[in-house]
Amino acid sequence: MGVHSRLTGLRDLSPGERRALAAKSAGLDPGALDVLDPAAGLTLDQADHMIENVVGVLGVPVGVATNFKVNGSDVLVPMATEEPSVVAAASNAARIARVHGGFATTCSAPIMQAQVQVLGAADPHAARLRLLEARGELAELANAQDPRLVEFGGGVRDITVRLVPSGEDVYVVLHLVVDVRDAMGANAVNTMAEAVATRVGEIAGGRTLLRILTNKADLRLARARAVFDAEALGGSQVVRDIVHAAALAEADPYRAATHNKGIMNGVTAVVLATGNDTRAVEAGAHSHAVAPDGRYTSLSHFERDAEGNLSGSLELPMPVGLVGGATKVHPVARAAVRLLGVRTASELAGIVAAVGLAQNLAALRALATEGIQRGHMSLHARNVAVTAGASPEEIPTVVARMLAAKAVRADRAEQILAELRAGAGAAEGD
Q1: Catalytic-residue membership of 83
Q2: Other CB atoms within 10 A of residue 307 CB
Q3: Does the annotation count 347 as an active-site position?
Q4: Whole-angstrom Cα distance, residue 194 to residue 171?
Q5: DSSP state letters, 38-77
Q6: Which run of H or E residues covers position 64?
Q7: Which residue among 4, 24, 83, 218 is the active-site one?
Q8: How far is CA 292 from the centre of its chain?
Q9: Mind listing the pLDDT tens digit for each residue in 273-327?
Q10: Is 261 an annotated catalytic residue?
């Protein structure tokens, strides 16, 4: 059974009904997503085995982004986020992208790197060459630490050596370049770096200090592109304004920081839902946004194509995996991976990039038309109403009145509630 991601009316259903429909649309068993119910999700006992000093678990809303077509196939995307409008915005952008076939994604090989730092080499330039001459020996020693990875086609692909001058020393820094297959890879490359460190120091004639991966995963890239129909976006002027908005992000670091945060709204939500390392992905993405001239810039690009439609593209490091870590331990993460239907880390990386591009387009479109606050505040108003103590029956009225007055604030919600309840009390006394 093929996956169907065009789920109309999903927002009108209860959470349980949404889970059932998502499972059915993804071709899963009816109860496959039941662990998304907090009562059936991560237990305290499971959490106690994941980290230290466990005292509880934190619930984060998990939504399903619809309308996504990636490399010709429909996909339902789980997104874990506390921010209103993120899931809806991604779904809407994906709907617009479907007009011209959805998202096309590619990924480079799943390459991670670990660094071994050498201090006090008397002849750092010669030490660099000695280490390069010992590539074969060092690669063999590193691969011996993870024969299973090598068996699955991974392992050391190269060894490079850099000289990094500092105020203290000229550090000789060896990089192990490792294909980690479907793992995120941190544990594998860290183990390899520690295993070769002693021999690296002997060859370089110095003392080794740091032996750890780098999260600048610039050899493990995910790329996504899509054409967003001009008419569906709102016309040619909207396309031109989105291009101008994106151009400012490319030119101005102050704008780029918020622009890229919008991309990460989508990226981080999928990475978190699948139990991957959000901090590693975010660190890699923001380091990749530094241009060769040292200027922080946009991760994405938007242009008008020959037909006047909007062409969007995104490239960023994507060190995500399906093997090990919370992805295998956390029951909700396992269910999220099942919903996605991915079989390799590269497939997951491509979908994450597609969601990041969709999220970016949605934000730019809002900025270029109605402004970002209109849609965002309508959803935020519900949170404000709940915080003020509104019942489910009172929430719609409180939200409507706050939006009409353009005053989405706790004090305004409390005032509206007081008026509603006073009116209801007077009506009961008549």
Answers
A1: yes
A2: 10
A3: no
A4: 17
A5: GGGS--HHHHHTTSSS--------EEEEEEEEETTEEEEE
A6: strand 62-70
A7: 83
A8: 24
A9: 999 999 999 999 999 999 999 999 999 999 999 999 999 999 999 999 999 888 9
A10: yes
